Amino acid sequence: MIVRRRWTAAASTVILFSAVLSHPAPGTAAPADPAPPITVSATETAVVRVQLRDQAQLDRLVATGADLANRPRTRDGRILADLVLSGTQLADLTAQGATAIQIVQRAGDGSRNYAESVRAAQARTATGLRAPAGQRTATNTDTLHVQQAYWWTTTGQTFLQAQVATTATDDPDVEITVNWRTADGATGSFPLYRFEDSGEYQYHYALPQPVPGRPVQLTATSSLGGVSRAITPTLWPNATPPPVPVGYQKDFIDAYLTPVDIQSRIKRLARQYRDLVDVIDLPNKTQGYRRTAAAYLGDPAVAAVVVDSVRFGDQGMNGVQVRTVDPGRPNRPLTVGYRDRVLTVSLATDTGGKTVSTTDEVAAAINARQPDRFRATVEDGSTGLPMPVAGPVRLDDGLQGTEVPARPWTVQALRLGVHRDGSRVGVLAYSQEHAREWATPLVTLEFAERMLANARTDPATRELLEQVDIFVIPTVNPDGANYSFNDFNFQRKNLVNHCTGPARDPKNRTSWGVDINRNYTVGSYFDGYVGASANCLSGNYAGTAELSEAESRNVIALAQDHPNIKFAMNVHSYGGYFMWPPGAYRADGRVTLPRPSIDESTLFLDSARRIVGAIAQERGTVTWPSQTGPVADVLYSAAGNSADQLYYELGIFAWDFEVGNDRWNPATGQWEGVGFQPPFDEAHGESQEYAGGLVELVRVARDYAVAQPAG
Ligand SMILES: [Zn+2]
């Protein structure tokens, strides 16, 4: 009977799965030249760009702690989201009306792209316009306000992007159309879509649209009869960095880098550029690439107890055995003994000699008699069942990496500059708070080495290192990164498992850990802000308390110890965003952390345009104006993130990159996501362009320091 219960669940999943994926979604015309079908096997994990049925579906996903890789955005009036999910989860979503648009990345892509990279290396603002309720009547037209109208050209294609706000904020049916005219007289139009966040109307917008030439005029019209003024679209970002000097050295990245690789890169840079580099050991060692050792005692498909070690597997607990035995005599009590690395549970028997202990009794007995060595939990679904004679089974931490030291890890920062004494304005660049974002340490290390190598050959770089004190943390979360490279490539969080009870079941292994960029103290989950979770299995788990994790404490310690740091960049992937505070709001009324002053907002935006311009210099990648702005406006609310901490607590101008911009596919006329671990060529391109952005940030810091009144 128990067996049938399990089979029923498994079978229905499979049926649902194949039924959904073998037929086109309703309303999808079968293409003449069929694209490869979007299939993910039930147990595989992938990043999938999904068109959701409606806002309610998105809200449900967010409320249940879904692993959103990207900010949901609107296409054709529908919501697109990049989700990290299993085939089963995708099938469930599809059954509820969602449509898979693109497999951004499969689980196997990470290790393949890593291996290929190594092989190849060896061979060579929303303004909140609101109309009072009831103002709009059938005879009133609405008023349209163009908030943004920008154009740019990249790799020969010109794009136009616009945001328009209507005063009819409460009418979900208002349709807004943008009409454009180019310098050559070509005209065209495209629809905008309503964008709401946290239940509040923000504006109408569309993804960047291809246009045949430089647009010189734009007007918006609404289905209520509103017409905007004619606007001349502005060139974006309209900032050009200084030309790259002849002989400028770059391209120091030839493969993906694991934390072990990063350690040796740091060592090499310190040796090679002794006069310009300090290595700072950050004060809080991480847990290390370690986990407790666990096993199912019994069969989880029938009845089982999860036995977990208190200490880590590498601390003598891997290989410890656990078993239940039948004492073979009547009227015996339940006993627990531990000898020679074997935990033996002798089951209780009745007068007839039959074993009578339940799963709950066995778990309780282990916890009572061996609390210093073991933690036992009844497997989810096995409560109250007869405990079988089982084992011996071997406890194991399940970690696959063989070349990772299993000990607490010292996170390191590089400090670069001629004067590393606090007398110069400081810039902090830090990356890989999120383990799976493999391209991000490539960005910060390329940046560091560019500064060092060119300091000897390029007077302008030398001058920057005279004037600025640079701090770089290439990998904030090395334990999670080691896990991402060796065990589960979509790991986002660190390796500290705060789960208790059934959540410690080894089947949840890839969902444990704390989201470092939700573990800070400003605007945190613990303060009631949106975008983090108390569920230890959620991708956005905030931890047991603010700053519960060594990784987040390290970032803060470095910034606090060096009060000359005035600028910071938190490097993430992917999606192509450039953001700054506020990064969080409260759910009720969408009240954000305080907005920066007008002057500071101007500094944020003007600097961002300079940095976006520098990024574009490398291979023409233009970060969209709609994705440049405060985190809470352009991405999502991220309660307890580090940039907010640095800005509000320490007065640092703190930005975030999401490197890895969508690529325009002229064949399909669609923007396509690149994923966390793209083929190395793409990751390499990201490292080169965003390192250029960080160099421009150093110039921004230099210019800021020069402009400060003396004394
Ligand atoms: Zn991230």
UniProtKB/TrEMBL annotation:
UniProt record similarity statement: Belongs to the peptidase M14 family.
Peptidase M14 domain ranges (all copies): 352-701
PROSITE patterns: PEPTIDASE_M14
Keywords: Carboxypeptidase, Hydrolase, Metalloprotease, Protease, Signal, Zinc
UniProt name for this protein: Zinc carboxypeptidase
GO annotation, cellular component aspect: extracellular space
One Pfam family of this chain: Peptidase_M14
First and last residue of the signal peptide: 1-29
GO biological process entries: proteolysis
Active-site annotation: E658
Organism for this UniProt entry: Micromonospora taraxaci
Matches recorded under Gene3D superfamilies: Zn peptidases
Reported cofactor(s): Zn(2+)
GO MF terms, alphabetically ordered: metallocarboxypeptidase activity; zinc ion binding
InterPro entries, per database record: Peptidase_M14
